[in-house]
Amino acid sequence: MNYKNNFKFNRWYHYIFGEKFYKKLDFKWNEYPNRYSIIQETIDRKNYKSYLEIGCDQDILFSKIRIEKKIGVDPVSGGTIRDTSDNFFKKNNLKFDIIFIDGLHEYDQVKKDINNSLLFLSDYGVIFLHDCLPKNFISQAVPRARATWNGDVWKNIVESRTKPEIDTYVIYADNGIAMILKRPNKRMLNLGTANFKQLKFRNYFYNYKDYLNIIYQEDLKNIF
Hints:
With about 220 residues, the chain is α/β, with parallel strands linked by helices. About 35% of the residues lie in helices and about 15% in strands. It is globular and about 50 Å long. About 35% of the residues are buried.
């Protein structure tokens, strides 16, 4: 079964069994910065020396990044290491100033990637994650049902916002770019749930600005 057939099957699955909520958010991403702009500006401003990218997808971003040392991990294409992120972190002994997570966009894997990245992040470093602001239900539905897909990464960011030991934001740019800092949470979210994977798109639609702590690129230099 090819990707298109998989997507078609999954769309029917979501139509029958999925959340019956059809409202959409109108994000105009072409009017806002892209991920390269945000990451490179951060590297230059903070004088970072080391960069790790999880999920390189033909080096669309990785090839552009200018930094002293960079490592890219992808099991299929791009980067410098052909492996899964789980295997990479098991063998890794390096620390990184900046880590960009853009691998498998499913809650369980993203949770592992965040936790592993925190172990290997320098004390004053930053983690960025892509695709945190989906526009509609199907663009975040798991299993994947379309080529352009955010996945349910947003649920991981909501969870991160409830943790006292990390400070989490989402930059309004390029499908939503989350930022996690290793410092006390400055605006902790109290949501009253322990099962973040079960959050619904309806919850996100009405509460995403509060859930995700939305900021803009120009706010970054005042935050860290």
